[in-house]
Every structure is written in C-alpha cells, then in structure tokens.
Automatic annotation (TrEMBL):
Domain (Transglycosylase SLT) ranges: 492-604
Entry superkingdom: Bacteria
GO biological process: peptidoglycan metabolic process
Lytic transglycosylase superhelical linker domain sequence ranges: 412-478
Family membership noted in the UniProt record: Belongs to the transglycosylase Slt family.
GO cellular component: membrane; periplasmic space
Listed transmembrane segments: none
Gene Ontology molecular function terms on file: hydrolase activity, hydrolyzing O-glycosyl compounds; peptidoglycan lytic transglycosylase activity
PROSITE patterns in UniProt: TRANSGLYCOSYLASE
Record's keyword annotation contains tRNA processing: no
Name this protein carries in UniProt: Soluble lytic murein transglycosylase
SUPFAM superfamilies tied to this protein: Bacterial muramidases, Lysozyme-like
Length: 650
C-alpha cells in the first residue's frame, strides 16, 4: 500500500530528486518513441503525485530525469507542499529551473506564503522584480520591516498614479508613504481623478481617505454623478462655470449619460452648452462622441449634429458615419462629397474606395465605377471580393506559400523551451505551452516568427501558426492562414445541418482562431465560442446530454452544437447568411432591432451601417473568410448571400 504523501516523504524525495538531474541533462534530445513512452510515464507520475503514491512517484521519476517536462513534475510536487518546504529546497528549484516559466510562478507562491508567515528577511532575499504589483508591495513591506524605508518607498508614486486598484498587500506601503509625507492631498486627488477617468471607481475610492475635506466632498459628488449622471443638471454645486472640479465632474457625467443612452443624453449636452459649465475644448469632443453614437442609432438628428462639429474636431469615425448616413438615405452624390471630404490617408482605405465606386455607379458613372472596382478587385479581402462581384471578376485569391527557413526552424526546435512547449501541446496544455514559447519569442523578428509558425503548424497547432504568421506580416500563405483542421468533423456537421462547410470554418476561425481551449470573458467556450446556456438549449433540443460545460472544449461536440445553433439562426432569419452571421455575434434580438423597418436594404449597405463596430467587423471578416475557405475547399467562391437584407417577419 502506498504511504501518504506526508511532509517527510515529500521532503525526502525533493532532496533526493535534484541528484538525478542537472539543468543541462533534461533538455537532451530524445527519439519520438522515447518521448512517447516518457509522455505516458509523466502522466502516470502526475497521477501518482495526486494520489499520494510516493513509491510509484519515485520509480517513475527515475525514468523521467531527461524528459523535457520533468521540471513540471518537480514544480507540482513542490507547489503542493510549499507550506512545509524549507527555503533551501525552494531556492534550489528556483535556481535550477530559472529559465522556465515555472520559476516565477513558484516564486510568486513562495513570496505570498512568506508574507503570510511574516518571514521578511526571506522575502528580501528571494524577491525578483517581474511587474507583479502585489509581489512588489510584499517586497516593499519586507523592506519597511527591516527599517529600510527609503528603499521601500522609492518609485512607489508610479504605482499610486496607475489606473489599477492596488492590492491589499500594498496598504502598509501606502500608510508608510503617507507617514513620510509622500502621499499629499494633491497626490491623492490626482489618483482619484485618474481612477474616475479610467472608469475604475475602486481605484479612485482608495484615494478618498487621503484627500483634504473639501476634495472629499467633490469626490463623493463625482461618485454620485457616476451612478446618476442627471445630477449634473440638478445639483447646485455643479452649476458654476470656470471651476475645475465642476468641469471634470460634468464632463464625466455627460459621457456616462451618453454611454447609457445617447438619445436621452442629447438634451443634457445642449443644456450644458447653454450653461457653459464646461469649456468649449471639453465640450466639443463630447458633442462629437454624441453625434457618432446617435449616427450609430440612425437617429434623425444625427447628421445635423455631425455637420455641427468644426472640421478641426472631426475624426475618422465621425467622417465615416457621415458617409454611412448618406448610404442609408441612398444619397449617392452626398456620399461622394462626404468621402472626398476625408483626408488622403483615410480616403485611400479599401472601404472608402469601394463606397466611392458604389456611389459613382449610383449616379450613373458606370465607366468610372468599373475602373475603381477593377483596381480594388485585386485585393483578397472583404471589399476586394465585393468589388469583384460588381464586375463579374473572379475573386483574387493571392496564394504564395512561405518558404521554410529550415535553419531557423532547426535552431528553434533545439531549444529546451520549445521542446517543453511541444510536449505540453501534445498533452493538451496549450496555455502552459504558450508560456514556454513566450521565453523565446519576446521581440522576435519576422524570420523567427515565420519559423515558429511553420514549426507549430507541423505539430498541428493551427491557431498559433495563424497568429505568428500574422505578426510576421505574411498574409498570402493560405494553407497556413486558412488551414482545414478537424475537417471530418466540420464536413459532418455541415452535412447534418445543410450548411456550407466554408461558412462553419469561417465562423470558427473568427471566433477562436482554431483554438479549442479558448474561453472568453463572457464565458463563451471552444472552437465556435458557445455560451454554456446556448449549448445546453441546443443539446436539449436534440436530446443530447452534455457532460458539463467543460465538454464544450471538445472540438467535435462544439462543432456539432455550434453548427446546429447557426442553422437555427439561419432559419429564423429566412435563410439570410448575412443576418444569421451577425446574430451569431451580437444576439438574435439585437439583429431584429437593426433590420430595416420597411424596404429591403442592400446587404453591403446594411453591413456597413451595423451599429456595433465589433459586429460590423465580425460580419465583414466572416464574409471574407467564407470566400477564402470556399477556395480552399474547392467550392464555388460566393461568400455570404443573399444581396439584400429585409425587415423582420415573425
């Protein structure tokens, strides 16, 4: 029977294990057969560690001393017993594996433990700067305990004036800084202002105790306005002009109000202009933002507000929405005038070259439009494909495979970090694999990025290859940029749901860049970024039982449910791939609100005037990617269809 993984058994193995290995031997090259065998042994060793089977753990560790992931086994064992480990053992690990991501990871755990135990001398000895604010404050606190006050407080003003909330471990440092006279009321007000303007009220509130009484009153009023922007018109303290506090608070309140409801905020903006409680320089950018927000909502007053902004205060977004509003009105001559009002750099972008050609066609200047379309059709992108459709040209599918930089690839493949990354990827641990790659890709030049992309593509890591190839500026290797992973699963899902496999590939590439482990801040998961609630509804509808939300990281399950969800959206939007794509991103209800109220609108105009920039760009990319995947799959290249977007018909 295995003995419990107790303090003495564990400590004994840790002291014994370093004798088996030096930092140079565990990176020695192994054959693929040996690696496969050691990979299995490594997984068995992890299981033994978790179960407390020290006998099997020791036996397996002997086999793994030259395996690339041996440091990970050492780390997991030491991390589990850190509270009972001695400093010598921890420092030996930190020294032996300093060139792995595990050293800073364990160091952070160790320093937090030392702080909990008030072991200040050990903290000073073991701390290394790494950009972690909490660990920095732990070290500063340790220096304070050693009476090294000047060193402890040096440079702390930079942390204080940051936008982030300070961790609780910084409290002793803040108190000491204030005692030493560094934290003045002016410095406190500066932090409060920075926090509020960054939208971090928690960071701002940390300054409240250190403000003088008058500024505390202003700060509390500012926080109240943040919650209820209408106070800018109601509170008597906010009606005076020429006061810096009033100007900042009122400007903040207007922006908060507009972010919540731009139409409701519009009269308040006009009233503030009448009262002159903020300066012209502060108000004009606010009015510009209001005009853009109202244009996105297609408000009847939007164009007037856009035209009221002085030319000196226009920006690209404002000028673009002026064009979009004219597109919605079908006013082609005004569209041309608005585009030609743009500065040369903006006018040269494919979007506005395309819309200028469309407008020329709209006023009957077909010859000039054809010339513009044909020039644009040489581009392999959304607007190039649209332009090609207007001239019956074949879409441009520029495809130039990247030449393999074999020497650079061999150099990378020989690095210990890359060997560890490969093993981690093959074990299905991409996050750890990326941490290893980060060690060798910091400030990488295009040659190294290209070599890394080709190397991981050989491993089957499609998503990472796409990202690095893009960073290298190599846009024309379509096999690498638009690979066909999980092809059997994609084509099976497409066949079952009667959807284009190219469309499914396009959605998956845009959603996750073919990284099945991805989880979004909104909790969307997997290749097609399904929310657990959506996946559960779809699964319930087909009588499928999900084994928890983690099953969405399985590509076959995710593709099956994602394709059914997309099919359902397509059916609800009368077979319109454009609006179904938008609904996949922004939600069905929003798209219904954005549909034309009466007459059908050309699909390209509808896409160009989608209110949310994220959804607008999403649909454009999926349209473009669908065409490229059609080319890659040997299908007729069409992109998304149809050519019109109609009103909602329940």
């Amino acid at each position: 029977m295995a003995l419990p993984l107790g303090r003495w058994a564990l400590a004994g193995w840790l002291i014994f294990a370093p004798c088996l290995i030096t930092p140079t031997t565990w990176a020695a090259p192994l054959t693929e057969s040996a690696l496969a065998s050691q990979r299995r042994a490594f997984v068995d060793a992890e299981r033994a560690l978790l179960s407390g089977d020290t006998v099997r753990l020791r036996a397996l560790s002997v086999q793994l001393h030259d395996y690339p992931l041996y440091p990970y086994l050492r780390y997991r064992e030491l991390s589990r017993s850190l509270a009972t480990s001695d400093a010598r053992t921890v420092r030996r690990f930190l020294a032996d594996f300093a060139d792995t991501p595990l050293a800073p990871r364990l160091r952070g755990e160790w320093l937090r433990l030392l702080a909990d135990q008030s072991r200040w001398d050990d903290i000073v000895l073991d701390y290394r700067p790494d950009g972690d604010l909490e660990l920095s404050c732990i070290q500063r606190t340790a220096l304070l305990q050693q009476q090294r006050t000047a060193q402890a407080l040096a440079g702390f003003d930079a942390a204080w004036l940051g936008e982030k909330t300070l961790p609780g471990r910084c409290d002793p440092v803040v108190q000491a800084w204030a005692t030493q006279g560094g934290l003045t009321p002016a410095m406190a007000w500066q932090r409060f202002t920075i926090g509020m303007q960054a939208g971090s009220t928690s960071a701002a509130r940390q300054a409240l105790p250190w403000l003088d009484p008058e500024d505390q009153d202003w700060a509390r009023l500012w926080l109240a306005v943040d919650q209820n922007p209408a106070l800018i018109l109601q509170d008597s303290r906010l009606q005076a002009s020429g006061d810096e506090h009033v100007e900042m608070i009122v400007a903040h309140g207007l922006m908060r109000w507009m972010n919540r409801d731009s139409v409701a905020a519009a009269p308040a903006v006009d009233e503030i202009r009448r009262r002159r409680t903020v300066t012209e320089e502060q108000l004009l950018p606010i009015e510009r933002t209001l005009a853009i927000y109202m244009a996105a909502r297609q408000h009847p007053d939007a164009l007037r507000r856009i035209d009221a902004i002085p030319t000196a205060y226009e920006n690209d977004t404002l000028r673009e929405w002026r064009v979009r509003l004219y597109l919605l009105r079908g006013n082609w001559r005004a569209t041309i005038d608005a585009i030609e009002h743009m500065p040369p750099a903006q006018l040269a972008r494919p979007a506005w070259r395309y819309w200028r050609a469309r407008a020329l066609e709209g006023i009957g200047e077909r010859s000039a439009a054809d010339i513009a379309y044909r020039e644009l059709a040489s581009l392999r992108d959304y607007y190039g494909f649209l332009a090609a459709s207007h001239t019956s040209q074949r879409p441009a599918m520029t495809d130039h495979p990247v030449a393999k930089p074999l020497a650079a690839m061999q150099t990378l493949a020989s690095l210990p970090a890359v060997n560890r990354a490969r093993e981690l990827f093959l074990l299905g641990r991409p996050y750890d694999a990326r941490s290893e790659w980060a060690l060798v890709m910091d400030n990488a030049d295009p040659q190294r990025l290209r070599a890394a992309a080709l190397l991981v593509a050989d491993w089957g890591w499609a998503g990472q290859a796409i990202l690095w190839l893009a960073k290298a500026g190599d846009w024309n290797d379509l096999a690498l940029r638009f690979p066909l992973p999980w092809r059997n699963e994609v084509e099976s899902a497409a066949h079952t749901t009667r959807l284009s496999p190219a469309w499914l590939y396009a959605i998956a590439r845009q959603e996750s860049t073919f990284q099945p482990e991805v989880r979004s801040p909104a909790d969307a998961r997997g290749l097609m970024q399904l929310l657990p609630s959506t996946a559960a509804d779809v699964a319930r509808g087909i009588g499928m039982r999900l084994n928890g939300s983690s099953s969405l990281y399985d590509p076959s399950i995710n593709l099956k449910l994602g394709s059914i969800h997309l099919r359902q959206l397509l059916d609800r939007f009368d077979g319109n791939m454009v609006t179904a794509t938008a609904a996949y991103n922004a939600g069905e209800n929003r798209i219904r609100d954005w549909l034309p109220s009466t007459d059908a609108v050309d699909a390209d105009i509808w896409v160009e005037t989608i209110p949310f920039v994220e959804t607008r760009n999403y649909v454009k990319r999926v349209w473009e990617y669908t065409a490229v995947f059609e080319y890659r799959l040997g299908l007729p290249v069409q992109g998304l269809t149809p050519n019109k977007v109609s009103s909602w018909s329940p």
